[in-house]
Design goal:
Butyryl-Coa Dehydrogenase, subunit A, domain 1; 44% helix; Butyryl-CoA Dehydrogenase, subunit A, domain 3; 8 strands; alpha+beta; globular; 3 domains; 398 residues; 10 helices; Butyryl-CoA Dehydrogenase, subunit A, domain 2
């Protein structure tokens, strides 16, 4: 833990008007970065200036320590502007939240992160997936190793889907500990805290995706990366001694991911409305927005967004109120939020037909981006199976 709060972090303004202004600024460059695939530096800079990349820094470190609902509002606003910016921000905010709840970073490294965060955007990401293993939430242990050395640790491994790419200030690398006296059958598992500019880190530009194209979710290799003592933070095993990946079930802090796709759905709603107001077919002689059919479609889009927002904030309010009965349902609620966001965008696309699928229409980009909600853990099938087992295998009340 740092000994004194770090002064100078940008102070976030979380009023609706302030968030809307950031949304508008980021949206100006979203299409450009989607086309180029470059790191969305101007969008990240706008989010940084507004204090949104550090809004969850703990109060003891000089931050605002925004809670889950405000974090969700931030990410919805960023997602409405540019979901690639929002995804990089989501991972960063989750890292600061984890440190605020349970200080686990070496003091010197977290002080360095905060100093970088004063100077400009300093993204952080938990880098976990591997080419052979796949998604960690599906089970298994990483091949990436943190080996004990005389001075600390040596990190070696190959990771996939490392969102943020070379823009990352810090990597939280999922690895197993290779150490004297360790149990080879049940090694310690955790995250190595790695400054992004350490020698031995090599990026491979593998990201050529349908959506979130500017998120720079590339592959990365770690070859003999030297780390100081204290850089490896263990993830505790369960009471039964079995390691279970924390991403296998949703918690309040993971609701930032579906929140950003609500932002995509909002952007699609606006794009649909703009098109409907400007489209005047010759046979009709007036904007299609004046027809009941298009008005009904707009209502359906709004319904889906309202449903997603109500599920998101309703679940978080129940958690805040101490209602523990909602906790086992968070994973399926997360699934329902994603379904509603996707449905909202697909409804707009279906109503407009070919024009909506043109690269000149921003709805095409929103469709590609919103579909990415399905990849975040726990994925839909895993969440539904877990919920089904809970329902069917619970003791009968009768």
């Amino acid at each position: 833990m740092t000994s004194t709060p770090v002064l100078g972090l940008p102070v976030p303004d979380l009023t609706d008007d302030a968030l809307a202004a950031v949304t508008a600024e980021i949206a100006e460059t979203a299409a450009e970065y989607d086309q180029s695939g470059a790191v969305p530096v101007r969008g990240l800079a706008a989010a940084h200036r507004a204090g949104l990349l550090t809004a969850t820094v703990g109060k003891r470190y000089g931050g605002a320590e925004a809670g889950p609902r405000d974090t969700a509002r931030i990410l919805t606003a960023l997602g409405e502007g540019d979901p690639s910016v929002a995804l990089i921000a989501a991972n960063t905010l989750m890292a600061h939240t984890a440190q605020a709840v349970n200080a686990h970073w070496p003091a010197a490294l977290y002080d360095d992160l905060l100093e970088r965060s004063i100077a400009g955007p300093a993204p952080v990401n938990a880098i976990r997936a591997e080419p052979e293993l796949g998604a960690p939430a599906r089970g298994g242990l990483p091949k990436t190793t943190a080996r004990r050395s005389a001075s600390g640790w040596v990190l070696d491994g190959h990771k996939s889907y490392a969102t943020g790419g070379a823009a990352l200030a810090y990597h939280l690398v999922w690895a197993v500990a290779d150490e004297p006296g360790g149990n080879p059958d049940a090694p310690r598992v955790g995250h190595a805290i790695v400054p992004g500019d350490r020698p031995g880190i090599t990026w491979h530009d593998t990201w050529d995706h349908l959506g979130l194209r500017a998120s720079n979710t590339h592959d990365v290799r770690y070859e003999a990366v030297q780390l100081p003592a204290g850089s490896f933070v263990e993830i505790p095993r369960g009471p039964d001694g079995v390691y279970r990946d924390p991403a296998a079930t949703a918690g309040p802090s993971s609701f930032g991911h579906p929140a950003l796709y609500i932002g995509v759905a909002r952007a699609a709603r606006q794009a649909f409305a703009d098109f409907a107001r400007s489209r005047v077919p010759t046979a009709l002689g007036r904007p299609i927005a004046t027809t009941e059919r298009i008005q009904s479609v707009a209502g359906e889009i709004d319904l889906q967004i309202a449903q997603a927002e109500t599920l998101l904030h309703g679940a978080l309010l129940r958690v805040e109120a101490g209602d523990e009965t909602v906790v086992p349902q968070l994973s399926v609620i997360k699934v329902a939020i994603g379904r509603a966001a996707v449905t909202a965008v697909q409804t707009a696309i279906a109503a407009l037909g070919n024009p909506a699928l043109s690269r000149r229409n921003r709805l095409e980009r929103h469709l590609r981006d919103v579909l990415c909600v399905r990849v975040h853990p726990p994925q839909e099938d895993a969440a539904l199976v877990a919920a089904g087992k809970r329902v069917l295998l619970a003791p009968s009340a009768g």
